[in-house]
Design brief:
Number of helices of chain A: 9
Mean pLDDT of chain B: 84
Helix content of chain A: over 70%
Order of helices and strands of chain A: HHHHHHHHH
Distance between the termini of chain B: 27 Å
Oligomer: heterodimer
Order of helices and strands of chain B: HHHHHHHEEH
Largest interface: A-B, 42 and 42 residues
Strand content of chain B: under 5%
Shape of chain B: globular
Distance between the termini of chain A: 15 Å
Number of strands of chain B: 2
Structural class of chain A: mainly alpha
Radius of gyration of chain B: 18 Å
Largest sheet of chain B: 2 strands, antiparallel
Radius of gyration of chain A: 17 Å
Low-confidence stretches of chain B: none
Structural class of chain B: mainly alpha
Number of strands of chain A: 0
Strand order of the largest sheet of chain B: 1-2
Shape of chain A: globular
């Protein structure tokens, strides 16, 4: 039950994009078309879940036993960079169609703050192993949901007559703000 | 841009290539920590420290690092400086470090820093990189202060925790919540573009 609660709250209430502001760059950059943004969301979810597992293992089996917590930042970023590289190579070898679909989005994920943020948040909140995995899946699904929603609105905006200074990033930010406002409504769902 | 003057390298970070309003880089910390002026200032200073020191170090070692592993080495350099500033903040300003939460360590994935290291520090001598980093970080700091000032003023009617607006002012709590960050940044960027368009028109005339 607790895990289910964690999953729902990671998707809707503490949404990674709309609440923690993690992964804003791809959120604004790759949200012009629904298809592309969906692929990006899937790629991010995939890497997020993997990172959650690996960073948990490193944190609990290496850093904490040897009292090396201050090396967290350096080791997490190295893990993420090599993990993304590895995933890219693995997907290219084993599943060319998937590689075609994810394509350019995979390398972009290294600099996606949501991955690093997930590793840091999970260690900050002292989640156990299962909780970390669920948190990773929830965070990824939340990211996918948010980016697809934004892309759906932006596709419609293509045809709208927007005042000139607002075209591009500003209107995307304002739309994101309105979506975030709507998501605030979910916060009443779980709190006692 | 080898013919650009040093002053030009400095000024461009403030407006023409302002990291937030123009290049839309480093948005995560920008949106997340700007609910109070003090947080914005602290984040801006931390980024300034990391940006300047990593730019200097990257440009110092730029001839020693093989091209293939340069990104990984840059990330290591940046991560080191981020760790320093994170530990420093936790030791001397524990309350501040707590309110910034994971966003100080997250400076490591801030695209401004890697972007400057890759696009500028790795190709230019130290003096020039230093000036470029100073301009960029000042531009970043300025934008953070502007955004967090607007949000704190409207969201709690105060600046740096001191109440400026009288009792008649009903705080707009939404400005402190995530939607306020998106909305105010969107409007500020639109305002910056509007001013720029006006300036350009004047230059043409």
């Amino acid at each position: 039950m607790n895990l289910l609660l964690l999953l729902v709250s990671a998707i809707l209430i503490n949404n990674f994009v709309l609440h923690y502001f993690l992964g804003i760059c791809p959120f604004l950059g790759v949200s012009k078309k629904i298809n592309a943004s969906f692929s990006m969301g899937i790629a991010v979810t995939f890497v997020l879940t993997l990172t959650a597992v690996v960073s948990w293992a490193i944190n609990h089996w290496l850093l904490i036993p040897f009292h090396l917590e201050y090396l967290q930042i350096v080791s997490f970023i190295l893990v993420i960079a090599s993990l993304v590289q590895l995933v890219e190579m693995f997907v290219r070898k084993t599943s060319p169609p998937l590689y075609q679909a994810l394509g350019i989005y995979l390398p972009l994920i290294t600099v996606n703050c949501s991955i690093m943020g997930l590793a840091l948040l999970a260690s900050l909140k002292e989640y156990g192993f299962l909780e970390t995995v669920v948190f990773g899946i929830g965070a990824g699904s939340g990211f996918t949901l948010a980016i697809v929603l934004l892309a759906a609105v932006r596709e419609q905006l293509e045809l709208a007559d927007i005042p000139k200074p607002f075209r591009g990033a500003p209107i995307a930010l304002i739309v994101a703000g309105i979506i975030a406002l709507a998501f605030l409504g979910f916060s009443g769902m779980i709190k006692p | 841009m080898p013919d650009k003057s040093l002053a030009g390298e400095f000024i461009k970070g403030l407006w023409d290539e302002n990291p937030i309003f123009r290049q839309l880089l480093g948005m995560c910390p920008t949106l997340a920590v700007t609910n109070a002026l003090l947080n914005g200032l602290a984040m801006g200073l931390a980024v300034t420290f990391v940006l300047i020191s990593s730019a200097v170090l990257v440009s110092l070692v730029r001839k020693l690092i093989p091209n293939q592993v340069r990104i990984a080495s840059f990330i290591l350099i940046i991560a080191t400086f981020v760790t320093i500033s994170d530990r420093f903040m936790a030791a001397f300003f524990p309350a501040l470090s707590k309110s910034l939460g994971p966003y100080v360590p997250l400076i490591v994935v801030n695209c401004i820093i890697l972007g400057r290291a890759e696009a500028f520090g790795s190709k230019n001598p130290i003096g020039r990189s230093l000036v470029d980093a100073m301009g960029m970080s000042l531009g970043f700091l300025f934008s953070l202060l502007l955004l967090s000032g607007v949000r704190e003023l409207l969201g709690s009617g105060s600046l740096f925790g001191h109440r400026v607006l009288g009792a008649w002012f009903e705080p707009w709590v939404v400005m402190l919540l995530p939607p306020g960050a998106f909305l105010s940044l969107g409007i500020l960027i639109a305002a910056a573009l509007f001013v720029e368009a006006k300036l350009k028109k004047r230059r043409v005339l």
